[in-house]
Amino acid sequence: MTTSTMPTEITEILENPARRLLLKGSAGAVAALGIMSLTPFVRAEELSSLPGYASWKRKQDLILHSEATMETRRNAIRSGIVTPSETLFVRNNLPAPDASIVADPDAWEVRFEGVNDPRTLTLGELKKIDVQTVASVLQCSGNGRAFFPHGASGTQWSVGAAGCVVWTGVPLKAVIDTLGGPSGGAKFITGTGGEEIPDGLDAKEVMVERSVPLEVMERVLLAWELNDDPIPIAHGGPLRMVVPGFYGVNNVKYVKYVALTENESNAKIQVSGYRVRDVGVSGAPDQPSMWEMNIKSWITLPLDTTEQGRNMLYGVALGGTRTVDKVEVSVDDGETWQEAELLGPDLGPYAWRPFVLATELSPGEYRIVSRATDVEGNSQPEARMDNERGYGHNGWRDHGVTVTVS
Ligand SMILES: Nc1nc2c(c(=O)[nH]1)N[C@H]1C(S)=C(S)[C@@H](COP(=O)(O)O)O[C@H]1N2
Ligand SMILES: [Mo]
């Protein structure tokens, strides 16, 4: 193996714990890759319980894909408007930092660049600038990957790499204003995660550093609370860059560096990772980046079986950056549709909205599907859009459930 192919290989392993295990089994390969010092993620079959940093989670609500990837079970959401932190999915690209970094949150330091007065501020100082709260769906780009027939590599998420949560923090705009405004030429907001890069690895190949267009600045928060509690280490505490309406990866955990930049980050996760391309094609900077989320919905209840007679069919619908206007539900795989009722308060354009349809079901087998439409008239497509890594799946057909009524 040449040095130039080595890092690509490592990133693939980091993205795909199963492959990592394969390589771990071969001491020679591991030594050749120089990843001896990297804490290996343990595969689900080897996990008897939740990993330490997530031990406070509700195990019965989660599917353990690996030590670094935990999916919320479809039946754990029901009619939930806000996803409890104990139920929320987890996805780490690198081993999570030591929990000692959340012991004294206000001491956490963040470096700001690309402003007229570049400075390092503590979380304690950030808290005094301003504060805002936003409800927002956190969803992995690969949520729904399991439905792609070509076998897209990466965690095989079904519908549970998503949750709707409440973040509290300082608007980034207020911080930038405090630091004298952008220093000029800025087109992107770039945030860097605070993980330590394991020895022997090239930082740019594995670091979590993401850039998003400067135009979304008004909605970006540097958040220290998740669902009214200080953000736990599993979800990026003590401080996280939250970009409401954008896919999970852009919501950088343990953020330690924020810069207004002319160019996108040159980290691999930005350059070729999280790029939508045809099956068989490699990632490249000219392909669309996984930024804004698309409209999507899925049924949460009933699943598998239910009793005949009156039934309440539940689900959740998200509009990405636009408020959900209506959700239709079909119990005959899309032949006929009925409009569902939206539940609970409207928590804004970035939140999801639970829905319910009361209907009579007689004994038999039903394919129940849902289709959401936003206030601008955008609807979910019927089919998935095939792409190499299985990103952004919002086709309604694949997301349905088959229920036997007796
Ligand atoms: N620093 C850092 N931020 C990160 C990640 C990471 O590994 N490190 N993973 C990203 C990805 S791919 C997703 S889907 C979300 C997952 O957030 P959660 O683990 O809080 O659910 O965090 C994003 N932010
Ligand atoms: Mo993700």
Supply database-style keywords.
406 residues, mainly beta, Sulfite Oxidase, Chain A, domain 2, Immunoglobulin-like, 2 domains, five-stranded mixed sheet, five-stranded antiparallel sheet, 11% helix, binds the ligand Nc1nc2c(c(=O)[nH]1)N[C@H]1C(S)=C(S)[C@@H](COP(=O)(O)O)O[C@H]1N2, binds molybdenum atom
Strand residue content? 25-35%
Question: How many discrete structural domains?
Answer: 2
What's the CATH first level of the largest domain? Alpha Beta
Low-confidence residue ranges: 1-38
Name the CATH superfamily classification of the largest domain.
Answer: Oxidoreductase, molybdopterin-binding domain
H/E element string? Answer: HHHEEEEEHEEHEHEEEEEHEEEEEEEEE
What's the mean pLDDT score?
Answer: 91
How many β-strand runs? 22
List the SSEs and their pairings.
Blueprint: H1 6-15, H2 17-24, H3 27-33, E1 62-66, E2 69-72, E3 90-91, E4 109-113, E5 119-122, H4 123-126, E6 132-139, E7 162-171, H5 172-178, E8 188-193, H6 203-206, E9 209-213, E10 221-226, E11 229-230, E12 240-242, E13 255-261, H7 268-271, E14 296-301, E15 304-306, E16 309-318, E17 324-330, E18 338-339, E19 341-342, E20 352-361, E21 364-374, E22 401-405
Bound molecules: ligand MTE and molybdenum atom.
